[in-house]
Amino acid sequence: MKTDTVVTLENGKNYLLLLEDDYMDEDYFLSVRLDENNEATDEYIVLKSIEKNGETYAQKINNPIILSQLLEDYSNQYYDDYDE
What whole-number distance in Å separates Cα of residue 10 and Cα of residue 59? Predict the structure, then answer.
């Protein structure tokens, strides 16, 4: 998994990977759900990258602390790029 790509979860919903972050020695992605027109919605989730049997999987994580940290990191990155 890498940023700026779209993944489809088992529920059929598409998510754009916005930011990859190593948090507590695990790989997490800040992701935004895309609507049927592939436009970003206001639903942000955390996906954890899991390696199993040579395959990479995305697992939705319901942890508001990690979500908050990733949103803060993404916001900081956005404003740093904007200032340049």
Answer: 10
- CA-to-CA distance for 4 and 25, rounded, in angstroms? 22
All residues at 6 or more sequence positions from 80 whose CB lies less than 8 Å from its CB, including other chains: none
Q: How many CB atoms lie within 10 A of CB 57?
A: 14
Q: How many CB atoms lie within 10 A of CB 29?
A: 24
Tell me the per-residue pLDDT of 15-72, one tens digit each, with 9 for 90 and over: 999 988 887 788 999 999 999 999 999 999 999 999 889 988 889 999 888 888 888 8
> DSSP string of 14-39?
EEEEEEEEEETTEEEEEEEEE-TTS-
Biggest CA pair distance of the chain: 43
Nearest to 20 by CA among 29, 12, 11: 29
